Amino acid sequence: MTHLVVRMVQVLLALAMAQSAVAAGKPDCTRPLSLALHDHGLLYSNETGEGIDKDIADELIRRSGCRFIVTVMPRARIWQLIESGALDFSLSGIANEARERFAAFAWYFSNKYYLLVRKDAMAQRLSDFENNTALKLGVIRSFRYSPTANRLVDRLDAEQRISYSTSLDPLYQVLLGNRVQAMIIEPFDYPALEGTKLRAQTAIVEFDDPPVRHGLIMSRKSLPEAQQAAWRTLMDGMRADGTVQRIFEKYFAPDLARAMTQF
Fold first, then answer.
1. Cα dihedral angle (104, 106, 108, 113), rounded to 10 degrees?
2. DSSP 40
3. What is the pLDDT of residues 160-184, one digit of tens each?
4. CB within 8 A of 143, min separation 6: which ones?
5. Does residue 106 sit in the same domain as residue 124?
6. What b/e string do you get for 127-156 counting C-beta neighbours within 10 Å, with b at 16 or more?
7. Using CA atoms, how far apart are residues 254 and 131, in angstroms rounded to an integer?
8. Residue 48: its pLDDT value, please?
9. Do 169 and 221 belong to one domain?
10. What is the largest CA-CA distance in the chain?
11. Rounded distance, CA 23 to CA 17, Å?
């Protein structure tokens, strides 16, 4: 009987703490929270265990005081778990109409996208690539990009001219092997191009779209709206006090870091 009373008191205290956190607009730390990273260039590297999103996650954990279970998984799997509510958070996510039905976002950077094309594909303009039915595009499964890039992906997918991968590195290999003739890149992918065969064999074609916002992804199913707002406030604070920009400056030149984090 005594054990039952103690347990009931513990439950009531936990509920009171959660209600207090919500009322104060603070993250609710009464349960372990889950966050998934994905292996993608400077955002996160499985080989080094480092990257921008890892640094952002560490700062969110430090500021919130919450206990997190952090894992690494393919991007497509992340979106599935966010939708089901089995995963609370991920990072560097892009919104669209479908995703906004099951995910909320807290923005912390924006960037542009580019088409990396093999020089021997003879595609100096986007239309050259799009209209040549012999050319194929490599993309990471479940990735979305800027509007023009998305239209290209959707059209080529309908024409069965897409080769899908679960991560970035295999795309570099199929591009080098001429099994695809182009892939879509962003600033996080730049280091892989410097001083490599890939750089010598490719050219960059611009999409001319404005920068696309990326943010903390929050599962609407697992996190109430008040908690989404609390985490958004925490992220906004990291941007306002310069923490996000300083993290980006570890990986990019100051001008580019500033452009990506001030929008």
1. 20
2. B
3. 999 999 888 899 999 999 999 999 9
4. 75, 184
5. no
6. eebbeeeebbbbbbeebbbbeebbebbeeb
7. 38
8. 95
9. no
10. 79
11. 10
- Are 82 and 101 within one domain? yes
What's the number of domains the chain is made of?
A: 2
Q: What is the pLDDT of residue 155?
A: 97
Q: Which residues of the chain have pLDDT under 70?
A: 1-24, 195
* φ, ψ (nearest 5 deg) of residue 224: -60, 160
- What totals of helices (H) and strands (E) does the chain contain, helices first? 11, 10
What is the CATH classification number for the domain harbouring 222?
3.40.190.10
The token pair at 76 is: 């497509």
Residue 261 to residue 241: CA distance in whole angstroms: 12
- Domain extent, residue 197, equals 114-206
In DSSP terms, 182 is beta-bridged to 117, 137
Q: Are residues 156 and 84 in the same domain?
A: no
Q: Is residue 26 part of a domain?
A: no
Residues 74 and 113: their CA atoms lie apart, in Å, by 20
Look up tokens 């993290």; give the residue: 247
Residues 40, 89 within the same domain: yes
- Report in angstroms the alpha-carbon separations of 245 from 137, 229, 241: 33, 22, 9
206, 222, 238 - which closes a domain? 206
- What sections of the chain are H helices per DSSP? 2-23, 52-64, 75-84, 97-100, 126-131, 147-158, 168-176, 197-201, 225-240, 243-249, 254-261
**152: in domain:** yes
